[in-house]
Amino acid sequence: MRPFTSLIVLFLGLGMFALSAAGDTPTAPSQSEGVVASELLLFEDIPSVYAASKYSQDVEHAPSAVSIVTAEEIRTYGYRTLGDALAGLGGVFTTYDRNYTYLGMRGLGRPGDYNTRVLLLVDGLPTNENIYGAAAIGNELCLDINMIDRIELIRGPSSSLYGTSAFFGVINVITKDVTDFDSPQLSLERASLGTTKGTLTYGKALPNGVDLLLSSSYFDSDGHDELYYSEFDDDNVTGGIARKLDQEQYKRALAKISYKTFALQAAWGERDKSIPTAPWGVVFADSRSRTYDSQFFIDLKHEHQSSGGLNLLARLTYLGYTFDGGYPYDYSEDEEPYIVVNKDEDVGRWWEGEAHLIKNVWAKHRFTAGAQFRASARAQQKNYDEEVYLNSRHRPGYWGIFLQDEFVATDRFRLSLGGRYDQYETFGGTFNPRFAVVYQPALKTTCKIMYGTAFRAPSNYELYYHDGYYSTKPANKLDPETIETAELVLSQKLSQSARASINVYTYRVKDLIDYGEDADDELFVFENISEVDGRGIEMELQGRVLGLGSGRVSYALQEAKDATTGEILSNSPKYMAKCHFSMPILQDKLQVAAQLGYLGPRKTVQGGEVDAATITTLNFTTYNVSQGLDLSLAVYNVFDVEYYDPSSTEHTQEAIAQDGRTIRLRVDYNLGL
C-alpha cells in the first residue's frame, strides 16, 4: 500500500465536509431512534469533559486536546473493546501480539510496554495496577464495553493533576448508570472464530432513593484453529503450525449502588488466554503456554456541593490484580523428553485514596486543590518451576498533592495553571507543572497553547523481576521517565454541523526505560537507556456529511526518534489516516456505518519493517425490529487484508499476523420486566 493512500483518505473526507458546510442549513432533528444515534456523533451533541480538570467543563474550554467516544458511537461502529474505540481516534493506534493489546500515541508505541505511559481511569478512579503499572485496554479489562457511557481521551501530559503514568494521555472511562436502563437488557453475540458472548444488565431506581445497577458478561472464543509461523517450521512435529492455541475466555461483573451523595461501585473480571506465538523461548505449540489475568476494585465515593459553591470529592478504593503465566521449556537430553513449565505468579493488592476541593474565588478564579495516596497491601512477584527463583514482596507506595487555578479573564480568554508534587519511596520527589491559555478570537474559533511535564515511575516489574539470573536480572535502581511537551490546538466551527481542528505538538522524553542486554554478563535488564524526540500534527474534521449522515476524517503525521542516534523508533508509524461515516436508511430503521483506517509502515525491533495497511469495517444496526429488539451485523477487515504488527523482544517472530475478515452478529433485547 502506497504511503499517499492516507492522503487520499484525508482529501475524500475534506471534499465531503466542504460540500456539507457549503450547503448546510439548520434542520429540526428527527425523533426516530436511528437518526438520534447518528446525531449523537456530532460535536455539538458531545457531553462536557471531566478528566481534563477534575470537573465538568465545555470541551472548547478544557486546557487540553480532548477526544470523546460516546456509547452511541461504540454501538454504531461495532467497537468490541476499549482498545477498538481508542484506535478509532485520530493519531492513536494499537498493536496486538495475540496475547495483549498495546496502545500507541504520538508516534510512540514501545512493543510490549503494557500501556504504562497512559493513565486509565474508571469514573475518575486510577486503575493502573501495582505490579506492571499496566492499563488494560483489551479483553483483560474488568469492565465490559456495553457498560461504557463515554470515553474521554485527554491528550498530552497530565501529571500536574494525576501523577504517574499520565504521560502521553489520560483515558477516563465513564460508566452507564441506572438512567440508561428502564428494564433488564440482554445482549447476545455470535462471531467468527467460534466466538460467543452474553451480557445481562439490570437497573432500578428504588422508591427509597437508592439507585441500583448490576451487570455481568461472559465471553468464549476458540480462536484460530491453526496459526502458521515460519520461524518454527524446522521440525517434523509441528511444521510451524500452532493448532487450537488461540483460545480466550473472560467473565466480568459490575455493581453500582448510589444514594444521595454517596456511591459504591465494584467491578471484577478474569481472563484466560492461550499463547500461540511461543514467546520467551518456550516450547512451540505447547498448550501449557498461557496467561491468566484477574482484576477487581471496590470504590466508595462521596461528592457534595455546598450552597456556597464549594465542591468536595472524597473516595477510598481497594483494588486487586492477579497474574498467572505458564511457560513450558524443553530441557531434554539424550533424546529423553524433559519439559518443565516455568510459572510467574503475581498478586497485587492496594488502597487508593483521594480528596479534592473545587471552589470559585473572586468571581473569576476556580481553584482545585487535593491530595492522593497509594498504599500497597501486597505486591508479590514469584517465579518458579522445580525451585523458586524469585519471591519479591516489595510494597512501595506514594502520595501526592496538587493545585490548579482556572482564571477566566474574559468570556474569550482563560488561563489554567497548576502543578503537583509526588513523593515515592523508591526514588524520592518530583514536581510537574502544566500551563494552558485558551483564547477565542471569534465566536466559532478556539486557540489553545499548552505546556506541561509528566513522569512515569518505574514499576515493580522493571525494578525487581528476574528468573534466577538465567536470562534476566533485576534493575534495583531506575530513575523515573520524564516528558516535556508543548502543543498548539486550533479549533474552528465551519457551520452548524461541521468542525475542524488541528493539533501541533513537540516533546522530549528523558530516561526512557527499556529492556536491554548488559554487555558485562549478557543478562537482560531494564535500564534508563535513551532520550526520545517527538513531534507531530493531528488534523480532524467532523460533522454532518451532505445531509445524509454523520462522520469524521482524521490525519496524523508524526515522528518519534532516538535523540542520540536520530533513528526512528520501532513500531512508530509516520502516517495515519481514518475516515468514519454513518447514515440511517430504510425510514430510519437501519443504520449503516463504515470506518476506514490507514496505518503507515512501522520498523520492527529486529530492524525490518511491516507494510502499511488499510483496514475497512462495516456495521449494520437495526432499531426496534420488534418491540425492544435491536440487531447488528459487523464485518471487520472487510477486504480480508493480510497485515502484521511488529513484535516485541520476547518473540522469535519479527512480526505477528493479525486477523483477516471476521463477522459478528449481535442481538440486544429489552426484556421489559
What does this structure look like?
The chain contains 6 helices and 36 strands. The protein is 7% helix and 55% strand. The longest helix is centred in the N-terminal third of the chain and has 18 residues. It has a 22-stranded antiparallel barrel. The chain is globular. It has 673 residues and is mostly beta strands. The N terminus is likely disordered. It is a multi-pass membrane protein.
Give the key terms.
single chain; mainly beta; Maltoporin, Chain A; 22-stranded antiparallel barrel; 5-stranded mixed beta sheet; 6 helices; 7% helix; disordered N terminus; Beta-barrel_TonB
Distance between the termini: 52 Å
Helix share of residues? under 10%
- What's the overall average pLDDT, rounded? 91
CATH architecture: Beta Barrel
Summing up helix and strand content along with how strands pair, one would put the structural category as: mainly beta
**Describe the biggest sheet?**
22 strands, antiparallel, barrel
How would you sum up the global shape? globular
**Radius of gyration over alpha carbons?**
25 Å
How many structural domains are formed by the residues? Answer: 1
> Do you know the CATH topology?
Maltoporin, Chain A
Number of helices: 6
Task: Pick out the low-confidence regions.
Answer: 1-43
| Number of E strands | 36
In short:
The protein is mainly beta and 673 residues long.
Helix and strand arrangement:
Elements: H1 5-22, H2 33-39, E1 65-70, H3 71-77, H4 82-87, E2 92-96, E3 101-105, E4 118-122, E5 125-126, E6 148-155, H5 159-162, E7 169-175, E8 185-191, E9 195-205, E10 210-221, E11 226-228, E12 241-243, E13 248-259, E14 262-274, E15 290-305, E16 310-330, E17 339-361, E18 365-384, E19 388-392, E20 398-410, E21 413-424, E22 428-442, E23 445-456, H6 460-464, E24 481-495, E25 498-517, E26 524-545, E27 549-562, E28 575-585, E29 590-599, E30 602-603, E31 609-610, E32 613-626, E33 629-636, E34 644-646, E35 655-657, E36 662-670
Parallel strand pairs: 4-7
Antiparallel strand pairs: 1-6, 2-3, 4-5, 6-7, 8-9, 8-36, 9-10, 10-13, 11-12, 13-14, 14-15, 15-16, 16-17, 17-18, 18-19, 18-20, 20-21, 21-22, 22-23, 23-24, 24-25, 25-26, 26-27, 27-28, 28-29, 29-32, 30-31, 32-33, 33-36, 34-35
